[in-house]
Amino acid sequence: MFGEYGLAIGLTLGVAVILGIGSTFTPIVPRGEGQPAEAGFAEAAAQEYGYCARNLDDIDCGCFANRAGQVMTHNAPTIRGAETIDRTELARMQATDSC
């Protein structure tokens, strides 16, 4: 039916199918640290940078703002009936320990 091009067409279609199936199972490459994709990160980081500049000494405020912003914008699942620490307190404690 395809004559002399049958083998080439078959191989091309086979490779296309394999690439299509393979791309379905390929994991998405995550962003590197320091490039959070969460909504509201810039606002939270700016607020925490201001807090650091006003209240903390001997801490890298850029690092502090980045860590605190990541914690504040992280969408962790909540457990019904469990008590959790205030997100701002948690962010500031972790940022202080990290930086």
Biggest beta sheet summary: none
Helix count, DSSP H or I runs of 4 or more residues: 4
End-to-end separation: 70 Å
Please tell me how large the radius of gyration is. 25 Å
H and E order: HHHH
Instruction: List the uncertain runs.
Output: none
Structural class of the helices, strands and pairings?
A: mainly alpha
Shape: elongated
Mean pLDDT: 80
State which percent range the strand residues make up.
Answer: under 5%
- What's the total number of strands? 0
What's the helical proportion of residues? Answer: 55-70%
Provide an overview of this structure:
- By secondary structure, the chain is an all-alpha fold.
- The chain is 60% helix and 0% strand.
- The chain has four helices and no strands.
- It has helices spanning 6-24, 41-55, 61-73, 87-98.
- The chain is elongated.
- It starts with 5 loop residues before the first helix and ends with a helix.
Q: What distinguishing features does this structure have?
A:
single chain; 99 residues; elongated
Please write out the topology.
Blueprint: H1 6-24, H2 41-55, H3 61-73, H4 87-98
